[in-house]
Amino acid sequence: MPKKIKVFLVLVLPLILVVSCDSKSVFDEYQSLPNAWGKDQIISFSFEALDTTSTYNLFINLRNNNNYKFSNLYLITDLEYPNGKTLIDTLEYKMSEPDGTLLGEGFTDVKENKLWYKGHKAPFIFKESGKYTFRIKHAMRAYGEVEGLDDLDGVTEVGFRVENK
Fold first, then answer.
1. Can you tell me whether residue 8 is helix, strand or coil?
2. Spans of all domains in the chain
3. What is the mean pLDDT of residues 15-33?
4. What NCBIfam families does the entry give (predicted)?
């Protein structure tokens, strides 16, 4: 076997195995934002909840780059239950250190943030089986401004993740 193929197998195969063996994941999906996140752009994720007895952790996943110019992030979310009931939250997350260094995982200028949504303070249980819809939009404003930003730069992808606790 050629040396290049051996090196490839030694380096890439373990990475593929680690990524594919995510035993906690129940739902994990991303949506890309090619230019900017518009203030009226609602990102939506739909998934089926089958087990109404288990507990879960729910996360908002966010990938951002150096074009993100804020130290925090405000989001408005809603989780729609199969019966139509909707749980609405306004959330704030810290996105950088006081010196401007972006928080998150990653070696390049793209950082990945796994932000708690539900399950960190009290166990989250899907009380009904069926289709749930999670929606999210940003609520960012420039300092001293009343109106929201038309376009939030620097956010490249938004995701939603459900994990077994």
1. helix
2. 24-164
3. 75
4. GldH_lipo
Tokens (6 digits) for 146: 């009343």
C-alpha to C-alpha distance for 91 and 17, rounded to whole angstroms: 34
Both tokens of 24, joined, read 């906690």
Model confidence pTM above 0.85: no
Q: CA 61 to CA 103: how far, in whole Å?
A: 13
Alpha carbons 96 and 82: distance in angstroms, whole number: 36
Between 18 and 144, the higher pLDDT residue = 144
Report the CATH fold assignment for 24-164: Jelly Rolls (2.60.120)
Distance CA(156)–CA(35), nearest Å, equals: 8
Q: Is the dihedral of CA 123, 128, 130, 136 positive or negative?
A: negative
Report d(CA 114, CA 25) in Å as an integer. Answer: 13
pLDDT score recorded for residue 9: 45
N- to C-terminal Cα separation, the chain: 43
What is the sign of the dihedral through the CA atoms of 150, 156, 27 and 93?
negative
* Cβ atoms 147, 36 nearer than 8 A: no
Give 135's strand partners.
Answer: 44, 78
